[in-house]
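Discussion board: Methods & Data

I've been asked by a reviewer to show the raw model output for two of the constructs in my manuscript, not just the figures. I'm not sure how much to include, so I'm pasting the format here to get opinions. Each protein appears as its amino acid sequence followed by a line of discrete structure tokens. Is this the kind of thing reviewers expect to see in a supplement, or should I convert it first? Here is construct A:
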Amino acid sequence: ENATASCDTCAKPSVYFILLDEYFGSKGLKEYFNYDNSCFENKLKQNGFTIITNTKSNYHYTVFSMASILSMDYIKDMGEQTVYNQYGYYKATLGIRQNEVCKIFEKQGYDIVNYSDFDMEGHPAGQGYHLLPSGQALISNRTMYYQVKKNLPYFLARYAKFTGMANELAERYIEINEQRLNKTLEEAKPNTQKPSFTYLHLNMPHVPYAYDSSGNKVLAKWFGNLTLKQKDEMYLQYLIYTNKKIAGFIDSLQTKTDHKAIIILLSDHGYREALNKTLALAHENFFAVYEPQSKGAFQKDSITSVNTFRILLNDLFKENLPLVKDSLVLK
């Protein structure tokens, strides 16, 4: 689907797409942890957000989920949903690089701000640390040997007891998240001139589980052979911390934009360890939207992530994008 002509009569507010990596949706939190996330949801509602309660991610792996969200479609003939599927991974990163969402926003006169780990045409990854190869690197690294060699520090830190390396990597993750949050706020402003589309990807509450719910650093505990019970506890603690961090960030962002910007708060998938219980449970993601001039576009019974921008772009620019069928890619 190609971007249509610019809509000269449409209001063009800035749009902030905030991606919380591996954030479990409220249904998943309740089922898996018996945790009630209504405090965070109520805070967002007080800020004018709509919470989409029946939401699911189409994929349970970040790169595939982001490709489908930004391409507004499923990845055709990708094979198994794993990073070790080099062909599927390449198709996903290519889909992100050439995504339709940014093309449409650019056609409508928007600046594109990319604070993610993924390169996009004309907008390289910003404030990021590439854990996985993409673009030309992936094309040239045809064998698993090169992938493992390139990413060995990450795998060593994640799965072996190299304390110094693990702590260094974890500190880098924290630094990247903070940089991205701060840069987004620094550049946020009321829509007085050219609008922008900002993709802000936060590795929260994804590993490393940097903080407990009170904001104490717990870096030394995140690596090595954790039991599932330990992972569950650290994940939930970090999610509660993330709630507090994001609530404060949303307050600041809305203030700096005079409450005129659209904000999409979405997770790419749910808690990955929930795959051990049922595949579908790991697709329970989080989805909230702030639209200052709400027309009720997101007031739907259920939405999966692939339709996020089809709904928004139809609402904003009168794009006639049909919704695709909601389904989960479990394999």
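Construct B, same format:
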Amino acid sequence: MKDHQCYSPETHLLSTAQIKALPDDRVRVLVSACLAGQVTTWDAQPLGMLPILEHFLALPQVEKCTFCPEEYSFGTPREMSNCYGGNGFDVLDGRAKILTDTGVDWTEGMVRAAHAMAARAAEQKVDLAILLNISAACGTQTIYDGHRDDKNYQRGPGVAAAALIRAGIPVLSNRDLKTMAALVKRYDPSFEAPEGLIDLHEHPWYKETFGA
């Protein structure tokens, strides 16, 4: 577990005030393609959809666009990859690498895909992004530090998430359920969230792992 750049997940999640300030009639959302039901995972298997995310994306005020940075550069199916030597910010700044399970250096392709995702966000004028947690591309709060089988984790985003954060776009993961519920409630006042929803950085595992 390492911190290669000072990182606070609360900085990049939408605050209550930011959610309230979102447009009433239309909110534009960039979503990791795999979370929106597209088959873009490394092994070409569907992930399914979280019920709360499915509810949000189905709301008439929500205009979604999807993107998979890894498919953009490497296709589907593909090898799995992880960050070595830092998080997504470090990869963007040339201090860390993206390597596949067989040791192939995918750094250049991942950086190119990250910038393409940020460009898509700008083109679509998105208000926020909902991304796949722990992915070397789309992880928002924590990713693997080296090979996933070693079970070493580091705080910070993946490469594409880092590019979005630097572009000023709020990001949340599929595990930020409290914030996601607040978004649903913003556009569907009749929605009643299940009790006890928390965001990833509030989870006991996260606190135990990172001492947060």
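Answer (T.O., handling editor elsewhere):
This is acceptable in a supplement if you add a one-line summary per construct. For B, something like: The chain has one domain: 9-210.
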